[in-house]
Write a structure and sequence with these properties.
Layout: E1 2-3, H1 4-12, E2 57-61, E3 64-67, H2 68-80, H3 90-109, H4 116-134, H5 137-143, H6 149-175, H7 181-190, E4 197-199, E5 202-210, H8 216-234, H9 239-246, E6 258-261, H10 269-275, E7 287-289, E8 292-302, E9 305-313, H11 319-337, H12 343-350, H13 354-357, E10 372-374, H14 380-386, E11 398-401, E12 407-418, E13 421-422, H15 429-455, E14 458-460
Parallel strand pairs: 1-4
Antiparallel strand pairs: 2-3, 2-14, 4-13, 5-10, 5-12, 6-9, 7-8, 8-9, 11-12
């Protein structure tokens, strides 16, 4: 009998089996993302301890070139992530670079558009993060061996734009693949009984949430403060500075409350409604969302896209409100234990969490979109609160605080425990469908590579022609 990891390897190990894993798109090439090709000692190109030869073009893919130094940069990126490079050959690194260039080249042929403004925002975010980690922009520039900030930003911009093109091309290929119920059934029947995957222990969890009420007085304090900010800004004060100093939105505070958005951007409806009702240069009145109270300043309108800044303030919860919420959650627990009401009924009528209330408090696994949580992959904080609960048992009231500082109290219960078991088509349909879909996606990507390699100008130079690649880059 095989574990789920083994079955994945057995049934997904085609010549492109690891390509799907490259859908994690970042500026760095993670060591675990490199295709580990088997290269004999006689054909493996070793990474020298020092560069003796002049840097030159080692490969061409369409309009893209790959320099010998690009492989060294790949090693640098892997090392910067704290990963080992000792088992990654230069041939393997080149194979990954060739894939990325082909994706990016074809994205351009397919008229996939990546806007420079979007790349610039990504670049600023990444640079800010690296500065926080390393200490200064000068150190970042030195780490990447660039002579100036301008040179570094140009280099970094090109990397991010190419990565984004690669991401969009991969997404286009994968999104076009669907799997029917009949295909899932056929896939499952083809697995020998002795090799059926074993799924680990799982559980289904439900919760009831009570959020402390905010008094009208606290709400008015925040509204008045935001109105004061608006008056100051209209009088000449800087919106950027106000946001940096006072906004309670951790995602935009450091950038002066800046966001770029369209109507498809996944912001809450209330926020988008206000944003798209404003003229360029206009500041909104204070308004409420689930996150708190905001004011928005529209900086620029570009057709259906707008640049805006906002300030978020979150009303404070009084000690009295906290006490009332704690007493309420304890009373709900007692009523359930006294059989006055079921957990699901209490969740539907008494919980303050809209996302789970209608479903009787049942949590949805964000990774699989079903109700089961595999114990070994469960969020550590959730696992620590439910691992010792018996089926139907209710946790003690738990206090929780989110990133913005909002407090709430919750009850948790395990509604179902599923022990480790061999895959069952009816019970594990969603998991089996996921594996079948992944296999079909891998085949789709493999077919795509075969077709595009044939019709794209590709040239590999010098010693790298001796590499044994996963894909037929040499068109032999």
């Amino acid at each position: 009998m095989m574990t789920i990891n083994k079955i994945n390897m057995k049934f997904l190990n085609t010549k492109t089996a690891l390509i799907v894993l490259f859908s994690v798109f970042s500026i760095a090439i993670n060591a675990q993302e490199i295709i580990k090709e088997k290269v004999s000692d006689s054909t493996k190109v070793k990474m020298p301890t020092s560069r003796q030869k002049v840097d030159g073009i080692i490969a061409t893919v369409g309009d893209y070139i790959i320099l010998d130094s690009d492989i060294d940069k790949g090693y640098l990126e892997i090392s910067s992530q704290g990963n080992s490079i000792k088992d990654i050959s230069r041939c393997q690194m080149l194979g990954k670079l060739l894939e990325d260039k082909l994706y990016a080249h074809q994205a351009i042929q397919d008229s996939i558009v990546v806007k420079d403004d979007e790349v610039k925002k990504m670049m600023d975010d990444r640079i800010n993060y690296m500065v926080e980690q390393i200490g200064s922009l000068d150190k970042v520039i030195q780490y990447y061996k660039k002579n100036s900030e301008e040179e570094f930003r140009t280099y970094f911009f090109d990397i991010l734009k190419e990565n984004k093109l690669t991401e969009e091309m991969q997404k286009k290929i994968v999104d076009a693949v669907e799997v029917t119920p009949e295909e899932v059934r056929t896939f499952f029947k083809k697995i020998p009984t002795a090799e059926l995957p074993v799924f680990g222990s799982e559980m289904e969890v439900a919760q009831i949430v009570v959020t402390p009420k905010i008094t009208d007085e606290e709400k008015q304090k925040v509204i008045d403060k935001l109105k004061g900010f608006k008056n100051d800004i209209q009088g000449g004060a800087s919106f950027f500075s106000k946001a940096v100093l006072y906004s309670e939105d951790p995602g935009s505070r450091s950038s002066g409350g800046f966001y770029k958005m369209t109507r498809k951007t996944p912001f809450v409806k209330e926020f988008k409604d206000v944003a798209f009702s404003l003229a360029e240069g206009e500041i909104s009145e204070p308004f409420q969302t689930d996150f708190g109270y905001h004011i928005i300043y529209v900086e620029k309108i570009r057709g259906q896209e707008i640049d805006l800044r906002h300030i978020l303030l979150i009303p404070k919860v009084s000690d009295e409100s906290l006490k009332e919420a704690k007493e309420k959650i304890a009373l709900i627990k007692k009523r359930i234990e006294d059989k006055e009401i079921t957990f699901a009924e209490a969740a539907r009528t008494l919980s303050d969490e809209k996302e789970t209330r209608a479903n009787g408090g049942v949590l949805i696994n964000p990774k699989t979109q079903d109700t089961r949580f595999e114990l070994t992959k469960m969020d550590p904080s959730l696992y620590s609160n439910v691992s010792s609960l018996k089926e139907g048992e209710i946790s003690s009231p738990l206090a929780e605080e989110d990133q913005s500082g909002k407090k709430k109290f919750k009850l948790l219960t395990v509604t179902n425990r599923i022990n480790e078991h061999t895959a069952d088509y009816a019970k594990d349909y969603l998991k089996i469908k996921s594996i079948a879909l992944k296999e079909k996606q891998i085949k789709g990507i493999g077919k795509w590579f075969d077709e595009k390699i044939k019709e794209t100008y590709i040239k590999i130079n010098g010693e790298y022609r001796d590499c044994k690649f996963t894909n037929n880059w040499l068109k032999k």
